[in-house]
Amino acid sequence: MEEFNIGESLETFLPLAIPYLLKIVLAILTLIIGMSIIKRLIKFLRTRLEKRNADPSLIPFLSGILRATLIVMLIITVASMVGIATTSFVAVLGAAGLAIGLALQGSLANFAGGVMILIMKPFKVGEVIEAQGVIASVSEIQIFHTVLKSYDNKTIIIPNGPLYNDKIINYSTEATRVVEWIFGISYDDNIDQARQIIDEIVYTDDRVIDKESKYINVAELADSSVNLKVRARVNQPDFWSLFFDVTEKVKKAFDQQGITIPYPQVDAHLHQKTP
Predict the structure, then answer these.
(1) Angle of CA points 61, 62, 64, to nearest 5°
(2) Considering the domain boundaries, does residue 18 fall inside one?
(3) How confident is the model over 212-263, as pLDDT tens digits?
(4) Looking at residue 230, which CATH number applies to its domain?
(5) Across 28-41, average pLDDT
(6) Where is the Mechanosensitive ion channel MscS C-terminal domain (predicted)?
């Protein structure tokens, strides 16, 4: 029976094991140092974005994307250092990514839309927008969808893909807005009298900016009315209050002055044949 010689075994094993152990130690050090560098890079990115007044929703999103990307790259590097074949590993990741991408096309479109909204900033939280057939204030901007709050306190959730790729009207971008009214009067009424009544109501209101730039013009000779278009510039918060107040005051003033506001009506004529 052949005796087992520990000394000879160690002499054979150590030359093979030491280089591999050194690779493992070096890989562990690379992993530790790499994670430390990634942490510092993420902290630097967040600081820079905060100094540039980036959107609060954008900072954690970009930080998370960068962190995940760098960690994957670090793991691949460490794996190659210990002798693991990374070519097949990368190929598997690529194939998995393609399969997931094909399965989640709609979600990826919403994801891309969310990224573009956060970067391009067509609107912000708290602003009033018109999109996808609704007018509402922006409550939340998530990475896959945006939450809106309607005037009657309904929560509206819109996917970011269709939202970003369609028309968006932002009513809150400018500090001021132009209020517009259409007042119809009868063809028998005096246009100048109606214009004076509207002038006294609209352009004496303290909420109206630039009172000298008056706009009261005949906009249309309709089937049953002469339509006067009126415009006035106001600060954003005063838009709806002025619109409703003026509408009510003009109606009451027209009634007092005998000016008729036409409304659709049908005249029925009966023709009776005499025997």
Answers:
(1) 65
(2) yes
(3) 889 999 999 998 899 999 999 999 999 999 999 999 999 999 999 999 988 7
(4) 3.30.70.100
(5) 90
(6) 179-261
Decide: 63 and 42 in contact? Cβ < 8 Å: yes
For 167-215, the pLDDT digits (tens) are 999 999 899 999 999 999 999 999 999 999 999 999 999 999 988 889 9
Polymer length of the chain: 275
In terms of residue numbers, what domain contains 53?
9-103
Structurally, how many domains does the chain consist of?
A: 3
Task: Count other C-beta atoms under 10 Å from residue 46's C-beta.
Answer: 16
User: Two tokens at 138?
Assistant: 């922006």
- In this structure, what CATH number is given to the domain that contains residue 150? 2.30.30.60
Average pLDDT over residues 141-161: 91
Please tell me the distance from the alpha carbon of residue 88 to that of residue 127, in angstroms, as a whole number: 49
Q: What is the Cα–Cα distance from 122 to 117, expressed in whole angstroms?
A: 6
pTM: 0.60
The confidence score (pLDDT) of residue 14 equals 57
Domain with 36 in it: what CATH number? 1.10.287.1260
User: Does the residue 21 lie in any domain?
Assistant: yes
